[in-house]
Amino acid sequence: MEKCEAAAKDIRGETLNPHVCARHLDLASLRSVREFAARILEEEERVDILINNAAVMRCPHWVTEDGFEMQLGVNHLGHFLLTNLLLDKLKASAPSRVINLSSLAHVAGHIDFDDLNWQKRKYNTKAAYCQSKLAVVLFTKELSRRLQGTGVTANALHPGVASTELGRHTGMHSSTFSSFTLGPVFWLLVKSPQLAAQPSTYLAVAEELEGVSGKYFDGLKETAPAPEAEDEEVAQRLWAESARLVGLDVSLKPPARGQSSSR
User: Active-site residue 216, yes or no?
Assistant: First the structure.
């Protein structure tokens, strides 16, 4: 929170906008997600843009407060619950937008419904990360379908590789081979945090993207995601399972395919 408060202070100073607030949210805790959402609903009149940006990458076999595999729990389930808790406010603020940050790594992902939380298999940090990022794209697709006719759009995004601490568990910095052989090439492809934030900003405010929903962007360009990411049946099954895991009411039926939901 100290880093978050410092960032908010810097933004207030640069923009002279006093309405920049820092709020605590732990995506590895469903309790924290619910508390954060309740505070936003109470304090904010509108939610025009929701950017689900946070992630963990290739961490050890940790579990969240609620017992979920950490990468699935933080990268997908925490954002899934948060977005659903804010949906009514997003609809009331329409036209509004949801941007979910995924990764190019989703192309190597696979949703294993028999073992989403890696309780039966030997843990593979890379495969778990790829599954979590595929889940983000599938969530976006199904969310977009459910939001048809509401004025709320949802898109997924690979922002590029940013120079942040996200990759601290990958071993890139501790490996001599990686540092001296791959390092120089790798760092040529790495963006500064400011540059890596541009695609998210573009999806959030670009006038030409008004009404564009259910798409996947690589940087500033719309592109096709992996085939499994476009499987509607997998997307709907993942939604149902995610709702069960986080304790959301799934009794309300989504709009049928080809139909729009009413506001």
Answer: no
Report the chain's C-alpha Rg in angstroms: 18
pLDDT tens digits, 118-174: 999 999 999 999 999 999 999 999 999 999 999 999 999 998 655 455 555 565 544
Buried b (16+ CB within 10 A) or exposed e, 17-42: eeeeeeeebbbbbbebbeebbeebee
Listed in sequence order, the residues at least 6 apart from 43 whose beta carbon sits closer than 8 Å to its beta carbon are none
The crossing angle, in degrees rounded to 10, of helices 232-246 and 125-146 is 100
User: pLDDT tens across 28-58, in order?
Assistant: 999 999 999 999 999 999 999 999 998 898 7
Token reading at 102: 């995924």
Residue tagged active-site, from 123, 129, 202, 216: 129
Which runs of E-coded beta strand occur in the chain?
49-52, 96-101, 152-158, 216-218, 221-223
Q: What are the beta bridge partners of residue 218?
A: 158, 221
Q: Do the bridges between strand 96-101 and strand 49-52 make them parallel or antiparallel, or are there none, so unpaired?
A: parallel
